[in-house]
Amino acid sequence: MSADLLLAVDGLEKRFGALKATDGLDLEVRTGEIHALIGPNGAGKSTLMKQLSGEMKPDAGRILFRGADITYATAPRRARLGIARSYQITSIFPDYTVLENVATAVQMRMTGGAGILRRAKGDADIEEPALKLIERVGLSGAHDRLASALAHGQQRQLECAMALALEPSLLLLDEPMAGMGPQESAIMVELLRGLRGQVTTLLVEHDMDAVFSLADRITVLVYGKAIATGSPDEIRNNPAVREAYLGEEADAS
Amino acid sequence: MLTGGMALHKPSRSQAGKNSRIMLLFIEQILNGLQLGVFLFLVSAGLTLIFGIMGVINLAHGSLYMIGAYTCATVSMASGSYWLGFLAAGLAAALAGALMEVILMRRLYRRDHLDQVLVTFGLILFVNEAVTMIWGRTPLFMDLPQSLSGSVEIVPGAPYPVYRLGVILAGLAGAVGLWFLISKTRIGMLIRAGSTNREMVSALGVDIDRLYTLLFAAGAVLAGLAGAFAGPLVSVQVGMGESILILAFVVVVIGGIGSVRGALVGAILVGLVDTLGRAFLRDFLGLFLPPAEAAGMGAALSSMGIYIVMALILVIRPKGLFPVVAGR
Amino acid sequence: MPDGFLRIVTLALVVLALFFPLLAEAGGSAYLVPSASRILIYALAAVSLNLLVGYTGLVSLGHAAYLGVGAYVVGILSFHAVEGSTIFGLPGTVEGLVSIPLAILFSALVALVLGALCLRTSGIYFIMITLAFAQMMFFITVSLERYGGDDGLFMYAGPNRLGPLDLSSEWTFFYVCLAVLFAFLLFCRYLVGTRFGRALGAIRQNEARMITLGCNVYRYKLAIFVIAGAGAGLAGALLANQASYVSPDVLHWTRSGELLFMVILGGSGTLLGPVFGAVAFLLLEEYLPVLFDAAGLELLKEHWRIVFGPLLIIVMLFNRRGLYGLLAGRPRQ
Ligand SMILES: Nc1ncnc2c1ncn2[C@@H]1O[C@H](COP(=O)(O)OP(=O)(O)OP(=O)(O)O)[C@@H](O)[C@H]1O
Ligand SMILES: [Mg+2]
Fold this sequence. Notes:
The complex is a heterotrimer of chains A (253), B (328) and C (333). Chain A is an alpha/beta fold and 253 residues long. Helix content of chain A is 38%, strand content 25%.
């Protein structure tokens, strides 16, 4: 196994009754890259993300992270190993402010037995990094607002900040731009571009412009199988992909 | 080991006589355990269906059991016919259940469990007080139905009351009937579909509200009939519903919420463990401990028995013995 | 900090509490002091339950169990002190400085064991299983023949001493309860403000997200379950002293339901809500019959629960935010 391989998925399978949502999937993500995962609705992208983050157990196959088998590691364990994810359906703490949301995530990274009884509000150890992250995702002015009161796009940004708060070495992003307006999308694209080289990212996204401008490599998923992996150019010119996926897309739009 | 324990306490009888007596006592207690299990099943089946399908927790389910028992006692005493009382109990429980659903439970389907707990807790206070107003605080005692008051010998030398035996058989028949209804009929199919996909069933042109009211009433009938069965065997009094309700919770937790099969297995397990524990644990402990301590420990342990079983099962299978998978 | 109308009500209640024995005496109703102490004790229990229900989102329907353990520890120690016998090789005691900490310790231990089991489940299962285990504790106390079984246990030595204080004085006891409640409220305020408390709130709002943030939610929940159990144990210890009597009745499952009601009635997830809830609930319970009596409604006086039950139902159906929310006027922003 080469040194720059961060994540390797090997023959992964997940069945829902008769449906194989993940069907003998192989995938390699290299350290530092933005790896995009695309495919039509129901291809099994979210299902794969859940298996990577530990929320769902695969039926067969292996997941290796830095060469170690984490196929059966629990979700909290994976989070501590450095795998963080954001959700296709926004998942935040609605009754907390933006700052409280991110500070909670920061605090989870720092979990130390003693610090847990420190007063959380005004605690610079967690609030300073949190404020930096809030700025980094472009929510600077909003840190005092309740998360539930944010616009949808802002909630997605918040979610990114929470995932980054774990200082992950692998970031799993499930459609971070879903439901965003063009302006919000542009901010998010900039944010992700800024992460290139710092945080390895596995990105599921339907916005093809964003995918092709951001990704170092792209894997195409159809019916739970990876039908192609390669650079954006290779994918664009791959006949199988054009037929199975991009063709449809072009017709549809 | 059990027989040995008993022998310590009754040293004067002949060995063979002792052993067969113990054997008979054992059979009798097993039957008693089965009978408690049947009551518990009838109450739990309604609970578990209502949990599983409508997602509501109804603390007042035990009240339906109590209403059944009181109605049966009153009608059968007035008319002289147990069976008339039995019918009336089913009707009264159905009516009470349907009213409960239409007036209250309906508003709770979309609320969280906490609200459901508190509202149905208030309902218990109300029903208990209403029953007190109607029937007073003194417990009622019912006679056994004339036709079933004898006993039969299941094994030679072991007479067992016909009525109790009948209850066991009726309960088991009920279990089979329920299983058939749910897994083989159109109504059962609708019920199962409704639990996973409310919108789809509505789209098929089925009136979901009516279906739910009916289902609730059906669960109520099961509880009410259990109350009618229990009437001649226990004292009919306010609060009888809650003790059976909590046991039914244990049954449902053991069996897995939403699973009728689980309710049956759980109910019989709880019935047997509780009855046998109370009957034999003390003598069993007497093997190792002085009599006074054995009595004390035995009483404490036998009242804990079912909860210990529940804890053990929970450790092994947090979702119960027959966890209900989505869509089934 | 509460504001506006709420602040005024809170302040009025605090002042009333501080001077209550004086006022009651002056008004010729000294007999009200023990009832007031009882309200403070239940307020304490409700506040501890609120740590679970309001702050962590754990609906426990078995909180009376810990109230009972605390009460029985005090009762049993007093029993052995009077009898001159030993328990686990140690003598009994009527010294509150020993028995009350032991009551807290024991209820925490029971909460640790039962919580470790209950917290393997969630949702409806959790509600049912906390109720079931509380019922188990109830039956255990019933089976304690030596300590009165069904009939309960009289503390012939009367209430405990508490160092230099004599808890058999109604005034002293009232102020001890008040001080304990106040201290516990301060403790809770501190606790929910810590990183630990913030994590609990996050678990209530979105447990799945907390797990993927790397949180071992089971441990957090167990920790707060034990703390809440200890708080209820403290309330139980006071309850035993108030009546000089403990019985399985303290652990009856309806008690757990009532505590839950107090929390929600007052306003869950707020510091003072459960206190308001306990006051309102117990006053209603006590004065509803009196009210019907005054109105000449004999039947309702006897059967006041026929009104009480529906009243509670209506409150639950229509007032989602509790008294505290009602007084505060607008939701938190
Ligand atoms: N919990 C589940 N139970 C049963 N089937 C499921 C479950 N989760 C997903 N599926 C099915 O598995 C398939 C893959 O779903 P998945 O959500 O992974 O697709 P996706 O690629 O993320 O789609 P989208 O682009 O719409 O987000 C779908 O057919 C879906 O219906
Ligand atoms: Mg998806």
